[in-house]
Design brief:
alpha/beta; TIM Barrel; single chain; six-stranded mixed sheet; globular
Length: about 1100
């Protein structure tokens, strides 16, 4: 059978609907010689395709359809792309070819990237990258096809000669498609190949699996790529030999077709099974062990005991011996698992971060459960003190897996930490990782519904408006699960399963079968690529020795393959460094307070500070406190009357779907210990940290050990708990039951504890993670208590979420502090503490409209005695927008804004820097025309017309005053509150909605009209691309409603009516059709400025007390 050499997987994003699994499955089912995925400009499918092909028992080729150009250094200053790009198919015939193909694709996606990944043939030839590669001339977008169909025979011959001089083998590519254009190209390519004694091969250029997938593929491309597909993809499916004969039967003889098919087998046989790394050992970066040590284990033991006296010298001998025993228990396990070099690597990273003053978190995940990591200063968690189970981090049952530790790092300092990786292990050995966003059910319903609604030839043209699409998306169910960090996330359920038993969805499916069937076929496909937020790969060899790379949006290199293929399949080492805003807040607070991290060492800090518990945790005043800001967390803290660190750890663990139900029992047992009952007395010791309530994964593991499970089987239980594997949990039950019976448990007791244990499979925090995050929470609460103005300053400076900023401002007021306008002399770039006046000053760097150049000028010329002094010092270094922003923000005081504007305007007028559209420039001499102008304007009388000095004075005064009125209208419209919102994104001197009556939104039902009042913080205009309103504008509006964000939309039928009002900073009241899927969401049907609304509702407002 033939081999499909030109096949696109769904990682040819937005262009193919064929998954890698489907492609390999088709090749296996149809007895293909090999499978070969050749995506556009990427090798992202390489590892997965080889893995699946190996499992299926067939050969896998590595290929890519690259974009080749005349000059890959060419760029254009215009938006339009005018340089021709041509397709070219390259297949690796051996490991040299694989290496070279990775280099080609990596270059094209980095240095060569412009709109698309590009490379020119000369670069390939000059670098010797053509060795080990088979070249096929690709589709109608290939250069050979273009030249031949445009009758450029000489260029075609020269091009073929270039290819032959660059690559090991060259095949002219004929495609099994039966469109007139392709048939013409096929004949010309065939004739060219025969005339020039070149081999030819037949491919299918597959973008889907089956011919009947064409309708779904067309919908997908139009929904994702926003482009019409026309006839471009006819016959672009995975074809059998029979399909090829039928398709090309009217273009070539059977013998000609047979030869082209046999060439696919010839190429497949020519290709060796390349090594993509599936048999790799762990790819640890090289770790240098000093010559003084026998091996890595010897060096690790030295590093662990090096800090022993520093950390435990103050303890008694018994406590010290516990730590020594723990270290000696951990090291053999780490050696057996081959984790030793990894721990040394972590130690190197942590040490270098400390040298560079990069703040790291106390621990993350199960790292805190390992005492050796504490000894290495990788974590700050003494696992013996906190009674943490080492097996949660490492145990013999994990043999063969990679070690995995995640760093938390100050968000501001994360780039510096990545640079640490590069400096330690080599710039070329460090790489970000791609992630792929998928076409979810809800997105597919909306996007595909829009295509069906807007296409004139659609069976549902004009029948699926946005309201219906949004409604259907809203009622499609999702599965709520808990991720590895204990956060609840939504996952798709198969739409065909969701429809069953749901009467509304069943009826909609019957009414719009094509729409729903398209979603069923297409949901789950990748639609775009992003960059993983925290994961970094660190390799012992340059990253392109393993896989191809591309650039992320910040211009940093990242692997095209996703994380699990890189880690699990080719054994690369991942290092997570998650930028944590709260660590940045702590770091800034310490700097503002004149403290260092050593001053608040969590291992010496007083964790029993009553003020912290009484002022923060017990009261629920936790705005800005790590992990405790949510309403649910505040309620739990108050309910538990949190007065010790274990309460904080419990809330951190229990505020998760899997364990939340146990929290009332914890509170009751804590507050009423006399009422505690246990299933069995032995549980008192196991559950001692949580008042006899099962909350932690470690407690579940302790139960398994107690029931007699060996360590390897405890690991099976850990996986079942951590990954929610209920089937595995059920398989453990029999052994669990027998083990407890041997300890004298009754059947009823066993059944009760088993039900509790099963509850763990829904997920609760491992205690190690909860301890680390609770200690960081305590530190933030401690700083908020004892350094309130510095802490709140830092929190405001670093908060990017508007709703959380509003909560922090409210907290600032509650704490008796004030947020004040920026001060031209006292404010820094960020918010600035003013302890003497118990206030926080707005940061000059946050003033909207102040340019970076203007900010530098202000800072470099301080102090200023008054506005006039400011103008004297920086007048020529700032522009009008800088001064406008500073005045409106109140940087020179709030009582003199108009006076400042007048002074600035006057100076610009006399310096002739004022815009002539605002004011004519002053004159020096009374020319005849000026005398006539003065007389005409009534500025002088006939008897004074010869008084030239008076004429000059009168005209200049007229121009000054007249221009001032124009200037005021342009720059000074609005009031104090509007100016604050315009420049500071908040109101400082008052609330424009205070006392205003607006009907209660909570009483409005879904799809009914109600009223929302707030401040517009963002308006995004978009052009309707399809349908009857194609080309018209609509917009999305974010409305700040009492510190919470409203997501509203204005459709094109209303856009022109409201566009003048919908401006950032405007206070408005909107009539909105409610969408109950979010608190403040809907369609705007009407808009009034607040002033207009008050005027319209004057009677009602007066009755309600608004004056």
């Amino acid at each position: 059978m033939s081999t499909s050499l030109h096949t696109h997987s769904c990682l040819s994003l937005g262009d193919s609907t064929a998954t890698i699994e489907e492609i390999v499955g088709f090749a296996k089912e149809n007895d293909h010689e090999a499978v070969c995925i050749s995506d556009h400009g990427t090798l992202a499918a390489m590892i997965q395709s080889h893995k699946l092909a190996r499992k299926a028992g067939i050969k896998c080729l590595t290929a890519c359809e690259i974009y080749e150009v005349d000059d890959d250094e060419w760029r254009s200053d215009t938006k339009e792309y005018s340089q021709p790009r041509y397709h070219l198919l390259l297949i690796a015939k051996n490991n040299i070819g694989l290496h070279n193909l990775i280099q080609i694709v990596s270059y094209a996606n980095t240095d060569g990237f412009y709109k698309k990944p590009r490379i020119d043939i000369n670069r390939i030839k000059n670098n010797g990258w053509g060795e080990g590669l088979i070249c096929c001339t690709a589709c109608q977008a290939g250069r050979l096809s273009k030249y031949l169909t445009q009758k450029m025979e000489e260029e075609a011959w020269k091009y073929a000669d270039d290819l032959c001089g660059t690559f090991d083998n060259v095949y002219c590519e004929i495609q099994s498609h039966n469109t007139p254009e392709q048939a013409k190209a096929n004949r010309l390519i065939y004739d060219f190949a025969i005339e020039n004694d070149l081999p030819y091969v037949i491919t299918t250029d597959a973008h889907m699996i089956r011919k009947e997938d064409m309708k779904y593929h067309s919908m997908f491309v139009e929904a994702i790529g926003h482009r019409e597909v026309g006839e471009a993809y006819i016959d672009c499916y995975m074809q059998t030999d029979s399909d090829i004969y039928n398709t090309l039967g009217n273009q070539f003889t059977k013998g000609q077709i047979k030869k082209g098919i046999e060439a696919t087998t010839e190429i497949a046989d020519m290709c060796e099974q390349v090594d993509v790394g599936l048999d790799n050992d762990n790819q640890m970066p090289h770790i240098d062990v000093p010559d003084d040590f026998f091996d890595s284990e010897d060096y690790l033991r030295y590093l662990c005991y090096k800090t022993f006296n520093e950390k435990f010298g103050h303890m008694n001998k018994e406590e010290q011996q516990k730590r020594k025993d723990r270290i000696e228990m951990e090291i053999p396990v780490l050696v057996e698992l081959d984790f030793v070099d990894y721990l040394i690597m972590l130690s190197m990273i942590a040490d270098e971060c400390r040298k560079r003053d990069i703040p790291l978190g106390y621990s993350r995940g199960s790292g805190g459960n390992c005492l050796c990591l504490y000894m290495l200063n990788v974590t700050q968690i003494d696992s013996v003190r906190w009674d943490l189970d080492f097996s949660r981090f490492a145990n013999i049952g994990r043999k063969g897996t990679l070690a995995d530790y995640d760093f938390d790092v100050s968000k501001i300092h994360r780039p510096q930490m990545v640079q640490v990786f590069r400096d330690l292990f080599g710039e070329e050995n460090v790489c970000n990782i791609s992630t792929y966003n998928t076409f979810t059910n809800k997105v597919a319903i909306k996007d595909l519904g829009k295509v069906f609604n807007d296409k004139p030839d659609s069976p549902y043209f004009g029948q699926i408006p946005q309201e219906l699409r949004d409604h259907v998306a809203k009622i499609i169910p999702v599965i709520k699960v808990v991720d590895e960090n204990g956060e609840e996330i939504e996952k798709d359920v198969a739409l065909k399963d969701a429809i069953k038993g749901n009467e509304e969805l069943e009826n909609l499916h019957k009414k719009y079968p094509a729409w729903f069937d398209s979603v069923i076929h297409l949901s789950g496909l990748p639609k775009s690529r992003g960059c993983h937020a925290s994961a970094i790969m660190i390799t012992p060899k340059p990253v392109t020795e393993y896989c191809s790379i591309c650039n992320n949006k910040d211009g940093e290199v990242m692997y095209e393959d996703e994380m699990h293929s890189l880690m699990d399949d080719i054994k690369l080492i991942k290092m997570d460094c998650l930028g944590l805003k709260n660590l940045s807040v702590v770091d800034m607070t310490l700097n503002l307070s004149g403290l260092t991290w050593s001053d608040v060492d969590i291992n010496t800090l007083n964790l029993k500070d009553e003020a912290v518990y009484n002022e923060i945790y017990k009261t629920g005043y936790t705005a800005g406190v790590f992990q405790m800001e949510s309403l649910e967390a505040r309620r739990m803290l108050i309910a538990a009357k949190a007065d010790n660190i274990e309460d904080i750890i419990v809330v951190n663990s229990a505020n998760r779907p899997g364990t939340k139900e146990s929290f009332p029992d914890y509170c009751h047992n804590k507050l009423h210990p006399e009422d505690i009952t246990v299933i069995h007395d032995d549980l008192k010791e196991i559950f001692k940290q949580s008042h006899s309530v099962l909350l932690y994964q470690e407690q579940a593991l302790a139960l398994l050990r107690y029931a007699g499970f060996p360590e390897e089987e405890v690991e099976t239980g850990r996986k079942a708990i951590g990954k929610k594997l209920e089937a595995v949990m059920r398989s453990l039950k029999k052994k669990f039951k027998n083990g407890l019976k041997e300890r004298g448990w009754l059947d009823e007791q066993i059944e009760t504890i088993w039900k509790l244990l099963k509850k763990q499979s829904e997920y609760c925090f491992n205690r190690g993670h909860a301890v680390a995050y609770s200690l960081l929470s305590y530190l933030t609460a401690y700083l908020k208590t004892h350094y309130p103005i510095e802490y709140m300053t830092a929190s405001l400076s670093l908060e990017e979420d508007k709703e959380k900023s509003a909560a922090l401002l409210n907290e600032l007021k509650r704490m008796g502090m004030k947020l004040d306008n920026p001060d031209i002399n006292l404010s820094s770039e960020t918010f600035t503490p003013d302890k003497e006046n118990n206030r926080v000053l707005y940061g000059l760097g946050f003033v909207k409209g102040l340019s970076s150049k203007g900010y530098e000028a202000v800072m470099n010329n301080r102090p200023y005695s008054d506005f006039e002094d400011f103008l004297d010092k920086v007048y020529s270094k700032v522009d009008i927008s800088d001064v406008n922003a500073l005045i409106k923000a109140g940087a020179f005081g709030t009582e003199c804004k108009i006076d400042c504007f007048r002074m600035y305007y006057t100076k610009r007028f006399w310096d002739k820097k004022i815009d002539r559209k605002i004011a004519k420039h002053p004159i020096k001499n009374a020319k005849k025309a000026f005398i006539e102008e003065a007389f005409k304007l009534g500025l002088t009388t006939p008897e004074n017309k010869d008084n030239k000095e008076l004429v000059v004075k009168c005209i200049n005064q007229y121009r000054l005053e007249n221009g001032w009125e124009v200037f005021k209208k342009k720059y000074c419209e609005g009031n104090e509150l509007e100016w604050e919102m315009e420049t500071l994104n908040t109101f400082l001197s008052g609330d424009p909605f205070e006392g205003v009556f607006i009907p209660n939104w909570d009483n409005v039902k879904d799809d009914e009209d109600g009223w929302l009042g707030g401040v517009i913080v963002n308006v995004k205009d978009v052009i309707v691309k399809n349908g009857k309103n194609k080309g018209q504008k609509m917009c999305f509006v974010n409305l700040d409603i009492n510190g919470e964000m409203g997501d509203l939309v204005v459709f094109s039928n209303n856009y022109s009516k409201f566009s003048d009002i919908l401006k950032n900073g405007k206070c408005v009241v909107c009539r909105v059709t409610k969408d109950a899927s979010a608190k403040y969401k809907g369609i705007i049907q009407g808009v009034s400025l607040l002033s207009k609304y008050l005027e319209q509702t004057k009677t009602v407002q007066q009755k309600r007390g608004k004056k």
